[in-house]
C-alpha cells in the first residue's frame, strides 16, 4: 500500500537532497559572512530609500564590494552621510566591508531626523520646522564643518601658545565654521517633505512614518536576499553535484533496482529525520553552524555515498541532466526537504503492514513495563 517501492525511492531521494542541501547551506553561510552579503543587501535597500537612482544595480557584486569605500569618499550624498553617522558607522563588524548587516527601524529614523535637522538644532528649536527649512533650502542641509577633523589638531597646537580666548575666537571664525551642505535628490526630498506635512508638526509621527517606510523596504530586501540565496545555493549545488557525482537519475535507478540499498537508505533517512532536526530547526539567531553539526552532516553524506556506491563511473547521456536536477533540488533549501521527509515518513509508518506495527509496538511497550515495575519497587 503506502509502504511501496515508489514511496521508499522518494524517501531515499529526499534524504539525499536534504543532506546536500544542508552541506550547501553551510558553504553559503560561509560565503555570505565573508563577503558581507547581508550588509550589501541592506545597503541596497537603504539606497532605494534615500536615493532617487540605485547606482549599485549597474554594478556587479564584485564591483560593489570593491567600490564601497571608494564611493563613500567620492560624494557627500544622503546615503553616505547616513552610513558615516557615528550611530550607524560603528555597527559594522566586517573587516572586508565595514557596514552593518542589520539596523533597527528606530535607529534608522532617529539618525535621519538628526541629519535632516542639521547643525542649527540646540535642543530648543522645533525639529520639524528645522527639517522643513533645511529641505526647502536650495543649498542643502548643513551637516558638517570645514575645520573637522583636521582643525582639531590645529586647535590643540594653538592652545600651547595662545590663550583660551584666542583659540575660541579662531574656532568661531566664519571661514572655519562654514558648513558643508548635504544635497538630497529631488524625489527623495519630495517624499520627506510629504512625510513632514503629514506629521502635522509632530516629530514622533514623523519618526513613525520613517520607521514604517524602513520596515516596508526591509520586507522587500528580505525577498531580494532569499532570491540571491537561492541562486548561490544552485551554484553551490551544481558544484557539489559535479564534485561528488550526485546524479539524481542514477541514484533513482539504483534505489528502484536494488532493494537492499533502498532499505538501507530508508533506514538512514528515518534515523536522520531525528538527528538532523536540531540542525535544520536551529534558532534564527545562530549565525554559524557548529563543528559538531558540520561533522554530523558530512558523516551522513559519507555513509549514504558508501551505501549508494557513489563514485566517478562511466558517463552517459543522463549524467549532466542528473546533476542539474540535483542542483535545482539543493536550491530549494534544507527546510523544504526536511519537512517533506517528515511527511513521507509519517505516510510510510501509517501504511506499515500489521506484523510490522506489532513488532514496533512490542519494542515500545517493553521499556514502560520495566519502568513501571521499578516504580512499584521503589514505592
Summarize it.
Keywords: Membrane, Transmembrane, Transmembrane helix. The protein is an all-alpha fold.
Features of the shown structure:
elongated, 379 residues, 3 domains, 71% helix, transmembrane, transmembrane helix, mainly alpha, membrane
How does this model look, in words?
Residues 352-379 are annotated as: Disordered. The chain crosses the membrane at residues 6-27, 231-256, 320-338. Keywords: Membrane, Transmembrane, Transmembrane helix. Residues 353-363 have a biased composition (Basic and acidic residues). The chain is an all-alpha fold and 379 residues long. The chain has 3 domains: 5-34 and 223-354, no CATH class; 38-147 and 181-217, no CATH class; 148-180, no CATH class. The protein is built from 18 helices and 2 strands. It has helices at residues 5-35, 37-50, 61-74, 78-84, 86-89, 105-117, 127-136, 150-159, 164-171, 186-198, 203-243, 248-257, 259-275, 277-280, 291-308, 319-331, 334-350, 354-378, and strands spanning 141-145, 179-182. Strands 1-2 form a two-stranded antiparallel ribbon. Helix 11 packs antiparallel against helix 16. The protein is elongated. It starts with a helix and ends with a helix.
Amino acid at each position: 500500500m503506502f509502504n511501496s517501492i515508489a514511496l521508499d525511492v522518494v524517501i531515499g531521494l529526499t534524504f539525499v537532497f536534504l543532506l546536500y542541501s544542508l552541506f550547501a547551506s553551510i558553504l553559503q553561510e560561509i560565503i555570505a559572512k565573508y563577503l558581507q552579503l547581508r550588509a550589501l543587501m541592506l545597503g541596497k535597500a537603504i539606497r532605494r530609500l534615500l536615493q532617487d537612482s540605485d547606482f549599485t544595480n549597474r554594478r556587479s557584486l564584485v564591483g560593489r564590494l570593491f567600490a564601497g569605500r571608494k564611493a563613500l569618499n567620492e560624494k557627500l550624498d544622503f546615503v553616505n552621510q547616513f552610513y558615516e553617522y557615528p550611530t550607524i558607522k560603528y555597527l559594522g563588524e566586517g573587516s572586508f566591508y565595514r557596514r552593518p548587516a542589520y539596523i533597527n527601524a528606530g535607529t534608522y529614523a532617529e539618525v535621519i531626523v538628526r541629519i535632516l535637522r542639521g547643525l542649527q538644532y540646540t535642543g530648543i528649536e522645533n525639529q520639524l520646522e528645522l527639517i522643513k527649512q533645511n529641505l526647502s533650502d536650495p543649498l542643502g542641509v548643513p551637516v558638517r564643518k570645514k575645520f573637522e577633523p583636521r582643525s582639531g589638531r590645529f586647535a590643540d597646537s594653538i592652545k600651547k601658545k595662545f590663550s583660551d580666548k584666542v583659540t575660541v575666537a579662531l574656532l568661531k571664525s566664519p571661514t572655519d565654521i562654514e558648513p558643508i551642505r548635504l544635497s538630497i535628490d529631488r524625489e527623495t526630498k519630495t517624499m520627506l517633505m510629504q512625510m513632514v506635512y503629514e506629521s502635522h508638526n509632530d516629530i514622533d509621527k514623523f519618526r513613525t512614518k520613517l520607521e514604517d517606510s524602513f520596515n516596508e523596504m526591509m520586507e522587500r530586501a528580505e525577498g531580494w536576499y532569499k532570491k540571491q540565496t537561492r541562486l548561490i545555493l544552485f551554484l553551490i549545488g551544481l558544484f557539489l553535484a559535479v564534485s561528488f557525482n550526485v546524479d539524481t537519475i542514477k541514484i533513482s535507478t539504483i534505489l528502484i533496482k536494488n532493494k537492499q540499498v533502498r532499505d538501507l537508505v530508508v533506514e538512514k533517512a528515518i534515523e536522520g529525520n531525528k538527528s538532523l532536526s536540531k540542525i535544520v530547526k536551529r534558532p534564527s539567531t545562530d549565525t554559524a553552524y557548529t563543528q559538531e553539526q558540520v561533522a554530523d552532516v558530512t558523516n551522513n553524506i559519507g555513509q549514504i555515498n558508501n551505501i549508494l556506491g557513489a563514485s566517478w563511473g562511466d558517463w552517459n547521456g543522463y549524467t549532466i541532466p542528473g546533476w542539474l536536477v540535483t542542483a535545482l533540488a539543493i536550491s530549494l533549501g534544507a527546510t523544504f526537504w526536511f519537512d517533506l521527509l517528515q511527511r513521507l515518513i509519517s505516510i510510510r509508518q501509517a501504511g506499515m503492514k500489521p506484523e510490522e506495527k506489532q513488532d514496533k509496538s512490542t519494542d515500545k511497550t517493553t521499556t514502560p513495563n520495566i519502568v513501571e515495575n521499578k516504580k512499584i519497587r521503589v514505592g
